[in-house]
Design brief:
Blueprint lengths: L2 E5 L7 H11 L4 E6 L1 H12 L7 E5 L10 E6 H11 L3 H16 L10 H12 L6 H6 L2
Parallel strand pairs: 1-2, 2-4
Antiparallel strand pairs: 3-4
Helix pairs in contact: 1-4, 3-4, 4-5
Length: about 140
């Protein structure tokens, strides 16, 4: 399993932890892009018609071949830093949570339409890796 990283910022990623988590869920290649709020806002506008920044976006690649990359995950380093400050953990921990969230979307999970499967899988992973509260759980609790 390979994570191809394009870091457009000075954000320090916990690469070893990201690779460990990804390898536990898939053997397919993943593209990870780290950008700023301005860039993710443009991508969000172009692909989803939403003119605002967000913390993570996922773009799965559809294929019947095992060797095709799984897709792309885009994370805003600005949002990772902001959410880390807001929730009282490190920006690196937040980037792992965002990566997990994006990866689950690439794997076909969708918390907007499922019956809690994505939330349960996210909780399972953060428990295994001793991470802070997941995105879905803290959104539900707000």
């Amino acid at each position: 399993m390979i994570i191809t990283i394009e870091n457009q910022t000075n954000f320090l990623l916990p690469i070893q932890k990201l690779e460990e988590i990804a390898s536990s869920l898939t053997q397919r290649e993943i593209e990870l892009i780290i950008c700023d709020d301005e860039t993710i806002c443009k991508i969000n506008q172009n692909h989803r018609g939403i003119n605002k920044s967000t913390d993570v976006l996922s773009f799965p690649l559809e294929s019947d071949f095992d060797f095709t990359p799984l897709g792309s995950i885009i994370i805003s380093s600005d949002q990772a830093r902001h959410k880390a400050d807001l929730y009282g953990h490190t920006a690196q921990e937040e980037s792992i949570l965002l990566f997990i969230h994006g990866l689950l979307h690439l794997l076909g999970y969708d918390h907007e339409v499922d019956d809690g499967q994505m939330r349960r899988e996210e909780e399972r992973i953060i428990t295994v890796y001793n991470l802070p509260t997941s995105l879905i759980v803290r959104t539900i609790n707000q």
